[in-house]
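yo

u said u wanted the structure for the complex thing, so here. seqs first:
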Amino acid sequence: MFTGLCAFPLTPFHHEKIDFHAFEKLIGNLKQANVESICAMGSTGLYPYLSRDELVKVTESSVGIAGDTPVMVGIGSLRTYDVLKNAEAAQQAGAKALLLAPVSYHPLHDAEVFGLYEKVTAEISIPLCIYENPGVTQFSFSDELYRQVTQLPNVGAIKIPGMPFGDNNANGKIRLSSLRNIVPEHVAIGVSGDKFGALGMHAGCDLWLSVLGGLFPNTVRTMIASSQSTSPQAAIAQSERLTPLWDLFARNKGGMRVMATAAAILGYTEANCLPHPLQPLQGEDKQKLEAILTQLSLD
Amino acid sequence: MFTGLCAFPLTPFHHEKIDFHAFEKLIGNLKQANVESICAMGSTGLYPYLSRDELVKVTESSVGIAGDTPVMVGIGSLRTYDVLKNAEAAQQAGAKALLLAPVSYHPLHDAEVFGLYEKVTAEISIPLCIYENPGVTQFSFSDELYRQVTQLPNVGAIKIPGMPFGDNNANGKIRLSSLRNIVPEHVAIGVSGDKFGALGMHAGCDLWLSVLGGLFPNTVRTMIASSQSTSPQAAIAQSERLTPLWDLFARNKGGMRVMATAAAILGYTEANCLPHPLQPLQGEDKQKLEAILTQLSLD
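structre next:
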């Protein structure tokens, strides 16, 4: 399942409760676009904000609508005890893969992160995607740690943060080449950070784990197809056209608030679809997003 | 209650469950030392790792043993909804104050943090301590935000991170003087970051919120008394004597793992008193800590 587009939709809220009606519309849109897989409850899907009961309900809702499109579920939590409970619940609810970041309050040491993956991979029966996102976990994987954790059983993929993949000296290209030598062949390498997705796929990443694709799957699928062709110029040009959007992502500490606002503008969700204290874009940033959605034909 | 030493004990674990027997010994030690207040479930007390049921039980246990020593309780959580539930539960269980950091997975914006404190302070009936700890929350308070949040009702104190308070040009001294002009007089300013505690108290902080004091309350109380006297040299010298300990704190991303290991060495807790994936000190760091505990007479 770790190829092409793995789409990361929102988990929309309304008055502090999950808005399943809106969520089902979001999943239906992804199903219709024939995405390769869906990650319900990635970072944009707010997995650490959900109770286990909510995690089960969102998993069941996703799997019900996604049908034969495989659904991955984020299971990260501060205590390994809860990660294991989440893993069990997600598997029972029909998840086909699990996404696990080294979630922390007290930032973790390498040995603690290895211990987490060791315990979890020993207990699961579906593939795990190891998820590096230092912006939310304050943890970066060394090459040596990647070597260790990808040798554990049931590891199917790693999700690396976005990095410049452009030319031969770009750090993303160097990192990807280094990881290819370290990571076993059966473990897919996925790119995240949508700004870097098109070039990451062209540089040889196996899949694009995409927040943008959680709302605009056709746009990302088209870019992936072009990225993987012998003439990736169209994908690179499209990614450059989206620069105003990447700038909004950067100014808003990632894509989550931007996509939540876009989903509301497009009528998928209520005007404010985030749980407090999180807030959608306001003022100038919201106006910029409205202009972007009007000018660029995202779908 | 926001004067002198506010002691931050561990919440010790054994086999992934709270070890109430060990916890009661830790609280008993603080009670015996006549600390001015106890913060059960600060960062070192692992508040974000606990379920609401655990928060209630730890609060009840603390209050039962602390008697007339006031107990503050950490209520932070990712969703405001849960923070409010925690606040209600902690108040009902006998807490005399609440500690609230802007806990995040997606790092927060200023407006979101203000919104959090606005909602929470409107619903509580005991004082709140606003807790800045960028090392765990990835959020720093601007002076303007401090001005806004300390005007909210029920705010009793702010807990600022440790900074050099040594001479007139040190940034801690400048910040403290700036905050004194911004923060209403009834709001206490507390120093954390034990390395900076002695000089922070000498520079005029109202209280020292101390991880070291959660295990060694007499040591910290003696330093506070000297810091606030006309001849603070003894406190400054004692803080300098503790440099090997501050170095261990820095190498281990804060004092939590160091104090958990010290508590085990001293027989308060089981050898590993942290919930997985957190780990106590190992190898060389553990040996260094054993040497420190032997050489320095902490109590």
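Residues 7 and 38 of chain B are 5 Å apart (CA to CA). Chain B is about 45% helix and 15% strand.
cya
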